[in-house]
């Protein structure tokens, strides 16, 4: 009975992985940010603030909120998923390099890499579940 339960859990995890965003498989590990370990330029101050995007998945669209706080010595990047109970996603890697931004969770679950495109857009790619797709963040209206 225990083996059957373990097999069902593994099948469920495989199903979740297959339901990732549409796109192509990345050519490198999902959890490694590009240029990690190389010296970075100070973050562009225009990155600071509240950003919104909608991640398209094979199951349903997922609105996402991104906060980039550059006020402290170390920048803080926080991702919230309002449709998933306001879940806050923690990142093991964050890289702000001039106008470029990258962040990743552990074990390759989620990675985003992009750059400012003007003052109110961050364009890039999200890597999730072994797939990659475009993702564009727009600056949220001030409260």
Features:
143 residues, mainly beta, Lipocalin, 9-stranded antiparallel beta sheet, 9 strands
Can you describe this structure in just a few lines?
This protein has 143 residues and is mainly beta. The chain has one domain (2-139): Beta Barrel (Lipocalin), CATH 2.40.128.
Can you describe what's shown?
The chain has one domain: Lipocalin. 12% of the residues lie in helices and 41% in strands. It contains 1 helix and 9 strands, in the order αβββββββββ. The longest helix is centred in the first third of the chain and has 17 residues. The chain is mostly beta strands and 143 residues long. A 9-stranded antiparallel β-sheet has the order 4-3-2-1-9-8-7-6-5, with no helix packed on it.
Look at the helices and sheets and give the structural class: mainly beta
What is the number of independent domains? 1
Low-confidence stretches: 1-31
Name of the CATH class: Mainly Beta
Q: Can you tell me the CATH architecture?
A: Beta Barrel
Rg on CA atoms, Å: 16 Å
Beginning-to-end CA distance, first to last residue: 53 Å
Q: Which fold name is given in CATH as the topology?
A: Lipocalin
Largest sheet: 9 strands, antiparallel
The 3D shape can be described as: globular
């Amino acid at each position: 009975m225990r083996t059957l339960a373990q097999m069902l859990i593994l099948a469920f995890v495989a199903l979740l992985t297959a339901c990732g965003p549409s796109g192509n498989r990345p050519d490198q590990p999902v959890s490694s940010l590009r240029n990690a370990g190389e010296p970075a330029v100070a973050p562009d101050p225009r990155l600071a603030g509240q950003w919104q995007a909608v991640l398209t998945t094979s199951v349903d669209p997922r609105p996402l909120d991104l906060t980039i706080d550059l006020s402290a010595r170390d920048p803080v990047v926080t991702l919230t998923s309002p449709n998933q109970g306001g879940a806050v996603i923690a990142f093991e890697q964050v890289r702000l390099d001039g106008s470029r931004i990258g962040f990743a969770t552990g074990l390759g679950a989620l990675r985003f890499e992009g750059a400012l495109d003007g003052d109110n857009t961050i364009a890039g790619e999200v890597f999730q579940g072994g797939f990659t797709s475009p993702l564009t963040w727009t600056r949220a209206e001030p409260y």
